Every structure is written in structure tokens, then in C-alpha cells.
Amino acid sequence: MKEFDTIAAIATVLGEGGISIIRISGSKSLDIVDSIFKGKNNRNLLDIKPYSMRYGFIIEKGTEDVLDEVLVTYMKGPRSYTAEDTVEINCHGGVTPTKRIFQEIIKAGARVAEPGEFTKRAFLNGRIDLSQAEAVIDIIRAKTELSMKSAVLQSNGRISKEINSLRNRLLQIIAHIEATVDFPEDDLEEVTSNQVSIQIENIINEVNQLLITADEGKILREGLNVVIVGKPNVGKSSLLNALLKEQRAIVTEVPGTTRDVIEEYINLDGVPIKIIDTAGIRETEDIVEKIGVEKSKEKIMEADLIIFMIDLSRKLDDQDKEIMDYIRDKKYIVLLNKSDLENKVVKEDLIGLNLKYIIESSAKSGKGLDELKDSIKELFFKGEVKNQDIIITNARHKEALIRAKESLSSALDTLNNTLAIDLSSIDIRNAWSKLGEITGDTLEEDIIDKIFSEFCLGK
Ligand code: GDP
How many helices, marked H, and strands, marked E, lie in the chain? Predict the structure, then answer.
């Protein structure tokens, strides 16, 4: 195992709470804590059994003042989160005791850990690979149970196992090619070339299977980007509120009052849906509203799905038609709102719209909302997400898979067109290396640093 200095961080959120945890990792962690710890009945911390707790006090060096009453846990490496000796101090929750104890630990010789450094150590010490490390942060940030479940599977090494198996098969192919090239005989080359082509095709298929999960995986992790558009007063805020089942957006009778964009998350059967309520796309002279309008256009461009609301109680007008022009090339659901009022919109008005998904609704009574949710699910999830064992949720992983696939396709071309099997092995090696970026085996150090820098402190 590599030798690192001893690091420390506050692992819990700073604020008032029952307890705070300060985490120390490295070969000196027990010595450092021992130097500021006074056990009950003067028991020495150095004789603590691994995976047990010791009760006592943290003492300020020099003054010998008692800072706080604590419980100290000791996890001996390599059986710890970082794979190093790790000590955790549970102290009273609260900013002051936690910070004071943390300062004493730093004074006693630990270094302040960088964000993600504990997990990085687990990676550098070989306890987990990069995709497992990334899953840790995904678990922390998960917005729904389903996205958490997929992150937990990833943290258990499901993706790594799949990737490693693909990489091993590529290595075997490379070995096979090299053996053939070393003992040249034309017949042998041809046989090998055919065999290799078939194996590569199989691997491409498996990479494709993983890539298919990636689009849904992105949604699972980041949420589906749904934007509600419609002219002022059609009921956008009311719809958002009805979906959220709480009054968060301001609903008013005056047209054009939802001036900015409002973003909220709802949980649709485990899929996080980010819903954005816009100010509509009205040409306007009002500067405040103009900002809102510009933002709306931006949000429409970025959206995965548009909910286009039409007010059934008012005749269709230029504003509606203008919005239609904006959303034409996007995926959208048409919501005919205020269906509880007298209908003034005729079918002919809607010519030019794709009416595959059209729903009569009332944001007021809740009519049509279930149908709306079902349509969203139908549009994006063909019922596959939940049963999938492995879901690629990480954009970096997806990118590496795409690159690996490109190299494999290029290898296949070489094999089919030239039969020069030794040429194809360069591409196969590239694919092997690209897949290794997912697990971190073949990734450059600065990229690894960047990945961990996005972690929270103390993790
Ligand atoms: P926005 O400007 O598009 O956000 O529209 P609001 O959500 O602020 O709604 C404007 C007005 O229409 C409010 O008075 C709502 O109560 C009312 N409203 C919204 N949806 C419906 C509906 O389905 N039926 C009826 N009768 N009124 C509605």
C-alpha cells in the first residue's frame, strides 16, 4: 500500500445537530487523536481494539482544558473506508465544539483534507475503482430512490465487473492476434481474422446495450428536463402547483405575472422530473418581462420535453401560434387546459401541431394530471429503467463507451477490408484503454483529481 500523510475533515454538515463526526485517516491517526484524548479512568487510547469505541474527552494541548465529551471509533486499515487506519470522533453537534476539536487535531499534526480525499485514498489504495468512487457522490446527491438504487449498484462494482470482463476479452483477442502474427502462416491469419471479427462484433453489441441505458441513465441522475410553456394566464403556475401539490409558485389573475422561471423537482415513480414554469414567449416592451421571455426561449432550447398549455376558454391567438412555432421541433405534449370552462378552441385551430399527445386538463380540478404523468413516462421510459441491472448514469462513462465503440468499429473495418490482423490490434488496444478510463485504470492523474474535487468535504 502507498504511504500518505494523515488527513482530517469534518464529515458531517456544520450546524446544530445531535452529533458531529470528525474523520481522520492515515498511519498517524490513532497517535494524533491519542495526544488530545483523555479516556475515562485514564484508559489509554492506543490499546483500543479495532472496530470498537472508546468514551472520553478531547483536551486542549497546553491548557489541558476539556473541550468536549466524545466517542472515538477506530477502524484499522486495510479494513476501513480509505483502506488506511481511520479514527472517527463523535462529538456534540454544533459549530463551535466541532470546529474546536478539528483545530486541535490539525494542531496535533493532521493535514486538512481536500474535498473527496478520503474516497480518493480508497481509490488510490486499490479498495475501490473510479466508477465505484463516483457512485459514492451519486448516492449522496441522489434525488429519488431509483437513482439511488442504481448508484448503490454501481458502488458495489456492477459496472466495473462488466467493464473488466469486456477488457479481459479484448486482451485475449490481442494475445491471440500477436500469437498469429508471430507464427505467420497465411491460413492461420485468415482463420484468426474471421474469429476476431465475430468476437469484436459481440463486444460492440454489448457496448451498445450499455449505451442504450445511458440516455435513461442521464435522466435518472439529472432529472428529465420538462418545460411548461403557454401564454400568460393559461394556468402554468396552477399546473406546477398541482403537480407539486403545494402552493409554491404565485398564482394570480393578472396576465404575465410569473416573470421569472421557476424550477422544481417532482418525483415520478422514482424518476426525478425537473419542471420549469416559464413566463411564456410573448414579444414585450417591458424589460423585466423581457428577461423572463429570453430565459423561456433558452429553457425551451434545453428542454427534453415541453408541456404546451392552451387555454380552452379563450380563442387561440397570435401568442399561441408564436409558441407553436418555437416548439415545433421539440418533443411536446399539448395540454388543453381549463376544460372545466366553456370551450372556445376548435380542432381546426390546432392544425400544424403534432397531436399524438394531447390531453384535456383542468389544473384547477386536477383533471388530466394522471394522464399527463403517464404520457411523460410513456415518452421517455419504455418500462425498461426499473428492471435494468446496470444503468450508465455518468456522462464520462458514456463518452468512454462511445470512444471504445468507435475504435472497435474501426478494428472491424480493418479486419474486413485488409485482413491485416496486426493493424487491427492497435484499434483494439485503444478500445481496451478507453474502457479502462471508466474504472480509472487508464485515466490521467489530472482528470482523476478533477473528478474527486467535485466531492464534498469529509467524504
Ligand atoms: P399562468 O400565468 O400561466 O401561470 O397562469 P396561472 O396558473 O397563474 O392561472 C391563471 C388563472 O387561471 C388563475 O386564476 C387560475 O386559478 C386559473 N386557472 C388555472 N387553471 C385553470 C383551470 O383548469 N380551470 C379554471 N377554471 N381556471 C384555471
Answer: 14, 13
What atom of ligand 1 comes closest to residue 257's alpha carbon?
Answer: 2
Q: Which residues of 66-89 are buried (b: 16+ CB within 10 A; e: fewer)?
A: ebbebebbbbebeebbbbbbbbbb
Sequence-separated (6 or more) residues with CB below 8 Å from residue 316:
310, 345, 349, 350
Q: Measuring from atom 10 of ligand 1, which residue has the nearest CA? A: 233
pLDDT tens track for 13-35: 888 889 999 999 999 999 999 99
State the DSSP H helix or E strand holding residue 444, giving kind and residue range, or none if neither: none
What Cα–Cα distance (Å) separates residue 114 from each residue in 7, 69, 97, 137, 162? 9, 27, 21, 15, 31
Pick the closest to residue 54 from 18, 90, 85 (CA basis). Answer: 90
Residue ranges around ligand 1 (CB below 6 Å): 230, 232-238, 251-253, 258, 337-338, 340-341, 362-364
**Among 233, 250, 313, which residue has the most ligand 1 atoms within 8 Å of its CB, making it the best to mutate?**
233
| Cα 330 to chain centroid, rounded | 25
- CA-CA-CA-CA dihedral for 33, 34, 37, 41, to nearest 10: 150
Q: Which of 226, 284, 228 is nearest to 256 (CA)?
A: 284
Q: Name the residue at shortest CA distance from atom 25 of ligand 1.
A: 338
Question: How far apart, in whole angstroms, are the C-alpha atoms of residue 271 and residue 108?
Answer: 47
Nearest Cα residue to 23 out of 458, 456, 453, 452? 458
Structure confidence by residue, pLDDT tens digits, 252-265: 444 544 445 677 77
Angle at CA of residue 266, ends 145 and 372, nearest 5°: 115
Whole-model pTM: value is 0.70
In contact, 457 and 9? CB cutoff 8 Å = yes
Instruction: Tell me how far the alpha carbon of residue 258 lies from the centroid of ligand 1, in angstroms.
Output: 12
**pLDDT 10s digits, 255-310:** 544 445 677 777 777 777 878 777 555 555 666 566 666 777 788 888 889 999 99
* Number of neighbours of residue 334 by Cβ within 10 angstroms: 21
Atom of ligand 1 nearest to the CA of 251: 8
pLDDT in tens, 101-141: 999 999 999 999 999 999 999 999 999 999 999 999 888 88
The model's pLDDT over 142-179, given as tens digits with 9 standing for 90+, comes to: 877 777 888 888 898 989 999 999 999 999 999 988 88
For residue 388, give the H/E element and its range: none
